[in-house]
Design goal:
Blueprint lengths: L3 H14 L1 H9 L1 H9 L31 H10 E4 L2 E4 L2
Antiparallel strand pairs: 1-2
Helix pairs in contact: 1-2, 2-3
Length: 90
């Protein structure tokens, strides 16, 4: 099984090489990722893909520390922090 880091690298690499895949990833992230990795992403999980540009900076904040215990458990079980970014664990 691939790690979240490996899956993310595969998706980013494919998007860099394949403009059709990149367009699908931007318009339908779940569908594009599911098809490319052969995984099923839960309906309750939202995925947003942002395209970098020289005029836009993206800042990813960690989860709000004021979340309920249940919300904290959900977040802790669904994401891992890696090199300043939060990666989805599928």
């Amino acid at each position: 099984m691939e790690t979240a880091k490996e899956m993310q690298a595969k998706i980013v690499g494919k998007a860099a090489e394949d403009s059709d895949f990149r367009a699908r990833l931007l318009s339908d992230p779940k569908g594009a990722i599911e098809q490319e990795l052969g995984v099923t992403i839960p309906a309750s999980l939202s995925i947003e893909v942002h395209e970098e540009s020289g005029a836009t900076a993206h800042l990813i904040l960690p989860p709000d520390s004021k979340l309920s215990e249940g919300e904290l458990q959900t977040v802790a079980g669904g994401f891992e922090r890696h090199e300043g970014f939060y990666n989805i664990n599928w």
